[in-house]
User: What shape does this take?
Amino acid sequence: MSEAGINHKFAFYLGCIAPNRYPGVESASIKAMKKLGVELVPLKGASCCPAPGAFGSIDLAVFYAMAARNLVLAEQMKMDIALVCNGCYKSIWEVNHKLKHNKDLRDAVNEVLKEVDMEYKGTINVYHTAELLYNDKFIGVDKVRDSVTNPLTGARIAVHYGCHLVKPHKDREFEKEVMLNTECPTWMEELVSALGATPVEYRNKMQCCGAGGGVRGYDIVHALDITNEKLINLKEEKVDALTDICPFCQLQFDRGQIEIQEKFGQTYNLPVLHFAELLGLAQGMSPQDLGLDLHGISCEPFLQKVL
Amino acid sequence: MARTKGYPEALDKKLREQRFFREDSNPEFTKNVKAISRTIAHMCYQCGTCTGSCPSAPRSSYRIRKFMRRAVLGLENEALTDPDLWLCTTCYSCSDRCPRDIIPTDVIMSMRNLAFKRDIVPVNFLKTVTAIYASGHGVPNNDVNRAAREKLGLTRDPPTTHMYPEYMPGIRKIIDHYKLKAEADRIIKEREG
Assistant: This one.
């Protein structure tokens, strides 16, 4: 333990949408994790992961090399990576995993990285902050519960797990085995309960938000139709808020509701919060500290319930 | 490398002899899909669990099972010119449930890679490449967000390539190594003038 109360340090990989659209996710993560003994250190010079769907669809060889560059930056800091986005997890964790286990891929990537004086060595691991929160080796549900000063009592909150943190489960290697259940997992609901809120199950919980794979850019109506199906299922359960662990899913549910209103004429006004933002609220951060005013859908009705 | 059943030579022989290719099928396509996707695409027995798990299937004509068949039969043109190829959200539900342990999502990704090599690619995918080439980010910062970040006690630009543009030449060098930016620019120009 180098500093008082800090048990773990990670290179904080930001990605694009968290810092550039929902900066509250970035500030809440840094502050909330610090209270839980985890310091997130800036990963200087990181780029887009790059986007696994949009970029990976073009040329996976370049995708591997670009993700490897981000990994090397953390290797140079001698730190494991922590990140807040499922899409980034898909790129950064999965490329790290692939390069560690496939010499042919590693050699090909290193041939290119040599041109920029870098070498991928495979010396670090990659974690999602949700995984750090759930795994008691790092933090654990009990510690999360102990850090709550403003319990979100009475709020009915549904979880959107998203896809790329947990799927495909046959490739994933979580230490906590329950995280490998992708049909009906409940570990995020445990975290929601730890904040004092009531987790709510809903139909087809594990369905995709619709945005991934470049589909949001390719056919927005198709993407929104998938989102809309989830919103219909959520409305049935009369939830106060939806929580996610992926800023891209958050963008699709939050800004997406405005687009759904324009294109399909359906209104939901369902507040959508990243789990880091929820955790911040429960630890006593104000909505202003979390930049909740930047959300497309007002969080007010939910905030009135919990503040 | 000793393998008990003699793959892949025995498989190659079987593919040659059984003549289940159509006239327009290309055996190289099956091999390329397998090489890029790094999954056993040729093992698909068409149960349809993939399409049954697919969020895109109920709202379009996209059928992942069809693409799996095209992979097995080497139906390159049919696969790569089908606009439905780009409707996969890469949610990996099919891959989680495939009873043959195939990763159909990665089969789709490999087909998209092969389509791009023939200039078959929606422009929005290319624009992600050009955005990353320009700033390092697929979704870059803007002034409204800079002001918001400041209020939250964050730096106006995140400590990524945005705050440290000196990292950009390295990124451009990597992308240029594969001539990806030049290709993207050329195709965008051809489409949009």
Remarks:
- Chain B touches chain A through 65 residues (CB under 8 Å).
- The mean pLDDT of chain B is 93.
- Residues 9-117 of chain B form a domain with the Fumarate Reductase Iron-sulfur Protein; Chain B, domain 2 fold (CATH 1.10.1060.10).
- Chain B has two domains: 9-117, 123-192.
